[in-house]
TrEMBL record:
<keyword id="KW-0804">Transcription</keyword>
<dbReference type="GO" id="GO:0032784">
    <property type="term" value="P:regulation of DNA-templated transcription elongation"/>
</dbReference>
<dbReference type="Pfam" id="PF01272">
    <property type="entry name" value="GreA_GreB"/>
</dbReference>
<protein>
    <recommendedName>
        <fullName>Transcription elongation factor GreA</fullName>
    </recommendedName>
</protein>
<keyword id="KW-0648">Protein biosynthesis</keyword>
<keyword id="KW-0238">DNA-binding</keyword>
<feature type="domain" description="Transcription elongation factor GreA/GreB N-terminal">
    <location>
        <begin position="7"/>
        <end position="76"/>
    </location>
</feature>
<dbReference type="InterPro" id="IPR023459">
    <property type="entry name" value="Tscrpt_elong_fac_GreA/B_fam"/>
</dbReference>
<comment type="function">
    <text>Necessary for efficient RNA polymerase transcription elongation past template-encoded arresting sites. The arresting sites in DNA have the property of trapping a certain fraction of elongating RNA polymerases that pass through, resulting in locked ternary complexes. Cleavage of the nascent transcript by cleavage factors such as GreA or GreB allows the resumption of elongation from the new 3'terminus. GreA releases sequences of 2 to 3 nucleotides.</text>
</comment>
<dbReference type="GO" id="GO:0003677">
    <property type="term" value="F:DNA binding"/>
</dbReference>
<dbReference type="InterPro" id="IPR022691">
    <property type="entry name" value="Tscrpt_elong_fac_GreA/B_N"/>
</dbReference>
<dbReference type="InterPro" id="IPR001437">
    <property type="entry name" value="Tscrpt_elong_fac_GreA/B_C"/>
</dbReference>
<keyword id="KW-0251">Elongation factor</keyword>
<comment type="similarity">
    <text>Belongs to the GreA/GreB family.</text>
</comment>
<feature type="domain" description="Transcription elongation factor GreA/GreB C-terminal">
    <location>
        <begin position="85"/>
        <end position="157"/>
    </location>
</feature>
<dbReference type="GO" id="GO:0003746">
    <property type="term" value="F:translation elongation factor activity"/>
</dbReference>
<dbReference type="InterPro" id="IPR018151">
    <property type="entry name" value="TF_GreA/GreB_CS"/>
</dbReference>
C-alpha cells in the first residue's frame, strides 16, 4: 500500500472500523479454535486442516495490517463543506447514458469503499476520474473496452 491519503466517507470509515473490530475479536478467536482443533489431529506435516487454517490466518493478519494502515491515513470527506455545483469525492451523481437514454446513479468514493454492485465507484476509476470537477449538464466521455461511452451529468447530490 502506498503512503497516499485514503479518502473515506463517514459510512466507509465506519464499515472499515467494524471490519477491523470483527477481524480482531471474533475472527481471530474462531481461527484460534480451528488451529487448536487441527493441531489435535496430530502430524502437522500432512494435516490439511492445519495448513488451511494457517493460510487463512495469514490472509486475515494481512487484511488487519492493511485496514490499520488505511485507517491511520484516512481523510474523512466533510460533506457539510462540499460544493454541490461540481462532482467531488462523496458526491452522488445521476448520469444519463447518451446512446441508450438510461439513467444510472453512482456515489463517488475512495478506492477502499468502491463497490460497483452497490453503485459506488472509485474516484480513481476511469469514470470516476472523468466525473471529478464536472458540473450538471456536462458530457462525460469514458473510454471502455467496447468503445467510448458518453454520459450527461444530470444531478449532483449528497447522501
Amino acid at each position: 500500500m502506498s503512503n497516499e491519503e485514503v479518502f473515506l466517507t463517514k459510512e466507509g470509515l465506519a464499515k472499515l472500523e467494524e471490519e477491523l473490530r470483527d477481524l480482531k475479536t471474533v475472527k481471530r478467536k474462531e481461527l484460534a479454535a480451528r488451529l487448536k482443533l487441527a493441531i489435535s489431529y496430530g502430524d502437522l506435516k500432512e494435516n490439511s486442516e492445519y495448513h488451511s487454517a494457517k493460510e487463512d490466518q495469514s490472509f486475515m493478519e494481512t487484511r488487519i495490517m492493511i485496514l490499520e494502515k488505511m485507517l491511520t491515513k484516512a481523510q474523512i470527506v466533510d460533506e457539510s463543506s462540499m460544493d454541490l455545483s461540481k462532482v467531488s469525492v462523496g458526491s452522488i451523481v445521476t448520469l444519463n447514458d447518451v446512446e441508450y437514454s438510461e439513467k444510472i446513479e453512482y456515489r463517488v468514493v475512495g478506492p477502499a469503499e468502491a463497490d460497483v454492485l452497490n453503485n459506488k465507484i472509485s474516484y480513481e476509476s476511469p469514470l470516476g476520474k472523468e466525473l471529478l470537477g464536472k458540473k450538471v449538464g456536462d458530457i462525460i466521455s469514458v473510454n471502455a473496452p467496447m468503445g467510448i461511452i458518453q454520459y450527461e451529468l444530470l444531478e449532483i447530490k449528497l447522501l
